[in-house]
Amino acid sequence: MNLSWILIIIGAMMWGIDGVLLTPRYFQYGIYNVLLIVFIAHLLPFIYMLITNRKYTQDIKKIKPLDIFYFILIALFGGTIGTLSIVKALQLSEFNPYSLVILIQKSQPIFAILSAYILLKEKITKKFKIIFVISLLSLYFLTFGLNSPLNIELKSIYPALYSLIAAISFGLSTTFSRKVAVKFNANLSTFIRFMFTSIITLILLLKNFTQTKTDIIYIAQNKQILILALLISVWGMIAAKLYYKGLQKTKAIYSTICELAFPLTSVLIDMFLLGNYLDPIRITAGLVLLISIVYLNTSNQ
């Protein structure tokens, strides 16, 4: 019995720590330019991969235009919209625990299967339809608890909405990834995704050049923010490498359960280090959602 599953757990835990302790540190330093945060998080690992694996530039030239189009869609939904949304949700989590945002984002597989049904014409079973309804109810109670949506301020709902957008975007990215997954290895796919995400976010940043320039100067003059940016980039890259390394020798049934270390780590850190406790209703809803996701990934159907 190999121990590759431990690498998946470590990688997932690192992502959980990043979502609760690392990325939110930007906001404490006064950096609220979410687009710039996402750009830096993708640019630095891309530069590292470019320097250490120059053969990737040659491999890209051999890729067909249709596959390039799918990679752009992956970068657009997974790298750009999805990441922007989850970081924005963390930024707005002043009124909600960070772990709540991450729990909602973990509904991604639900939307991956749904989008595969709509876009790729893949079949879905009656069991999935039942699980889908249960998951929607879980998301509702994660967002509102037992409170009426009409009595909750919008600023308290926005983090959940952005997290839901992230889940849908990552789900779409997963669907498009299926088109290229059988043709290219994970390392090359990650490199291309980071490249296109860096390009897309750079274009968006240039549209508001004045604000971007001001923020870059502020970051460059603050040693602590520079260290944070480097730490998050290296941290995320190591987590991804550990995760994919473990995934190579671990069955999907086990990897799905191991990946739950991500949201569970976030919940525990949020509770015991940051003092943000989820109420019993949200804890129950979160558990139901996670169990639904495990079921969908472990079912032969």
Give an overview of the whole structure.
It comes from Streptobacillus felis. This is DMT family transporter. Keywords: Cell membrane, Membrane, Transmembrane, Transmembrane helix. It is a multi-pass membrane protein. The chain crosses the membrane at residues 5-23, 29-48, 68-86, 98-118, 130-150, 156-176, 188-205, 225-244, 256-275, 281-298. The radius of gyration is 19 Å and the shape is globular. The mean pLDDT is 88. The protein has helices spanning 4-22, 25-28, 34-52, 55-61, 65-91, 98-105, 108-119, 126-144, 154-181, 186-206, 209-220, 223-247, 252-258, 261-272, 280-298. The protein has 15 helices and no strands. The protein has one domain (3-299). The two termini are 26 Å apart. It is mostly helical.
Brief digest:
This protein has 301 residues and is mainly alpha-helical. It contains 15 helices and no strands. It is found in: Cell membrane.
Radius of gyration: 19 Å
Number of domains: 1
Largest pleated sheet: none
* Shape type: globular
State the helix count.
Answer: 15
Sketch the topology as an H/E string, one letter per element.
Answer: HHHHHHHHHHHHHHH
Low-confidence stretches: none
How are the secondary structure elements laid out?
Elements: H1 4-22, H2 25-28, H3 34-52, H4 55-61, H5 65-91, H6 98-105, H7 108-119, H8 126-144, H9 154-181, H10 186-206, H11 209-220, H12 223-247, H13 252-258, H14 261-272, H15 280-298
Helix pairs in contact: 1-12, 1-14, 3-5, 3-10, 3-12, 5-9, 5-10, 6-9, 6-14, 7-9, 8-15, 13-15
